[in-house]
Amino acid sequence: MALRFLRTIKAFIVNVQWEQVYIGLGVLRCMLGIEPLDVKKRLGEVVLLDVRTDGEWSIVHLDALHIPLPELGTRYPELPKDKEIICYCHHGFRSLDAAAFLVRAGYNAKSLSGGIDAWSKEVDTTLLRY
Fold first, then answer.
1. What predicted TM-score, i.e. pTM, was given to this entire model?
2. Distances (CA, A) of 121 to 52, 68, 102, 127
3. Most buried residue, 28, 43, 71, 81, by most Cβ within 10 Å?
């Protein structure tokens, strides 16, 4: 009986932790996310930053700077501080991490919601999807 109770408590705690993660991601997306069509309207005013791997970059990319996410911690000073930076990846999760990092480092940064996959569906359907 006690063992079943402990398992139930453990399952509850794990579920609460995951709910907090999902809520946290939702808050980050609201604060740092920007939709593809909104980015399209601002091309030329913003700097696009691709944080995908070199392999992903070679498949398809936008006219953007390329700093893979694992290198961002050392290479972020290469980025201009006087322009808004729109980070993107494949689906928008790594770019959310990148944007949050850049904001903490004093940059004005956002994450392209849905990544290059959403861009290829909503803005430029000629882009190769993978």
1. 0.79
2. 18, 23, 27, 9
3. 28
Let me know: does 107 contact 79? Beta carbons within 8 Å.
yes
Q: Which candidate in 32, 89, 96, 118 is catalytic? A: 89
| Burial environment of residue 116 by CB neighbours within 10 A (0 to 12, 13 to 18, 19 or more) | buried
* Fold of the domain built from segment(s) 33-122: Oxidized Rhodanese; domain 1 (3.40.250)
Q: Is 89 a catalytic residue?
A: yes
CB atoms within 10 A of CB 106: 9
